[in-house]
Amino acid sequence: VIDGVELRRHDSAGTDDFATGARPRTTRALDTVAADALYHATGHAAIHPVPVPAPVLSGLGVPSGSAERLARPGGVLITVPLTAATSSKRAVLAVLADRAPDDDEFMDFGRRASRAMTAAAIYEEQTVLARTLRAALVPAQLPAIEGVQLGAAYRPAQEASQIGGDFYDVTPRPDGRWALSIGDVCGKGIGAAVLTGQVRQSLRTASLVTDDPVETLRIVNETLLRSDGTTFVTALYGLLDVDGPDVCLTLANGGHPPPLVLRDGSVTAARTQGTLIGMLPDATFGELEIRLRPDDLVLLYTDGVPEARGATGLLGNEPVLRMLADCAGMTAQAVTERLMQLVLEHVGEWPHDDIAMLAVRATAPQNA
Amino acid sequence: MMLAPSVFGEYWDAVAQGDSGTATAVAYRELDAGASVIDLLEDLVCAAQAQVGNLWALNEWNIAQEHRATSVGEDVVGALAAGIAGPGAGRHVVIACTDGEWHALPSRVLGAALRSAGHRVSYLGASVPVRHFAQLVHETGPDVTAASCALSTRLFEARRMIEVSREAGIPVLVGGRGFGPGGRWAATLGADAWAPDARGAVAAMQGDALPSFTTGAPPLPAPDDSIEELRRRCPEIVAAGVQVMRARMPDVASYDDEQVRRTAEDIGHIIEFLCAALFVDDVRLFTDFVDWLRAILVARGVPSSTLRRGLHLVAQVIQSRPGPYDPVLRFLAQGADAVGDAAA
Fold it and tell me: Is this prediction's pTM over 0.80?
């Protein structure tokens, strides 16, 4: 309701909405010849007495009679043309009122609404852009793999764009094993996000030509050095084999925090190191093998976890290890969610970096 | 259809042992026997969760046990939800826990219940930042949003979600203990509808409780500057509160580090709940909390008298700071009285 005049919008669904005053949510762009004529004829706000002239009604796509049903005797139909400078779309706002208002008021409203439409059109384009980018970068849903449970948690630093420089990925390989990765691209925001996409793609491609995780990281290292040389990434990349008696994870480390292994209620950090990916031509990447017995869990995480800063300083490794040790028997997803809660509660209202976690838990053999 | 009483016992045993497989099998078996998804969600998952909360409150279970049992509940909800056919002719609803609200199970139950009733559900999960929520609401244009809030201290964030949603013309359904007994603070905060549980939410979605369009959230009844002041000063009040309690109360003076940390945490909660009570302008929010805290503390060997004395000392600490704190002190005094009544 604007200044006591009730706005009722015609919706493409038909006249009933016009008559009942449907929720004005989607604006229908008028694209019929009649609407064009109406638009040009009423380049300014116009007030039509009830009964409304037939050409005006057909321009609005409203059959004659419906306006009469609504308007009280002596009422008027006000049409206000709206146009966005950046768009060929135009619209006519139709208002039923009990009395004829000040014409200028509506013209002014039309101008302001047009400006808002211009801004909205620009905003819409940017939204589509951001959404497309995000759809390509947000971690995909984890696959279901027999013999293991997967869990993940992810919070990008930039909440609004939801695009970050951390990533994780679990993809099937032709040989029945699974390629698994987690990584952290230097920088933040859109720039880091675009690089994230590149790195993730390079990892997938490299994993097609070699089944050696260290070799895979070497290829990605080479790719990044050639493309840019100023950006780098830390990552753990490995192969998950669920076929043997134990679940076996073979990982290569490119400068990434070591995985944590939870077994029988105690936690150990795997001993591994390696250089950053994308900085040095002769980088060396550490390799390690983790064998998981049923109920063992391995947690991969990015440095957004221990380096989360809150009112009391950095979170550090200690609380993470303590809480993880307390997670025996919990599902992989529950573990990552519980740790994410720990991190974000520590952070409180402070800004945080990208945070990503990926957990793999070996499940008890089937028929258990 | 009613579940046989023995079914809950069987399900509970599985939950207590952290056995997702058996718990899910029980739920599936009852589903095959003709129980509805909503019955299973309410009468198994939610009923068990209430029990989990009680055991924690009574100090019979630790937090890890609570989390393990909760994760069984989440697995069962996930398994039940997986079996639901695609959305029917229902409405599109976005479900979110308020920022800082990590109790996700009730909202997952709601999501599964609404899906089983034919609605299209976009589930955002635990602790959803308002910015993220706002973006999604504008991008997807749902018919309804649903906000879940189990802790009254998160009502500030709930209010912001309600504002964001209503500003976009989208009506808001709220639920969770955070809105008080009978949802008494839901309307105050501008929610279009409140539901006590998943069944109630399904009914609200089908009935006339939720309009197809809504206007901006009405202003809060009693905007109070002292809330902001109190929230800002919370860390220093907590620090001073611990100090004063240790100086004046011999039992507190002998606390070990862990007990001191817990005491500081409790004072922090007291301030947060005070702020929330002022926010909805209802002292019952605070006295209910004090009552709950008293039971929790007594179960952990801390006598009521310690809490009552602590509340008085916190009031003194607040009084010594600059700023008009009349309603704050009045609420605190009523809280201390509530402890007295209960202890008597």
Answer: no
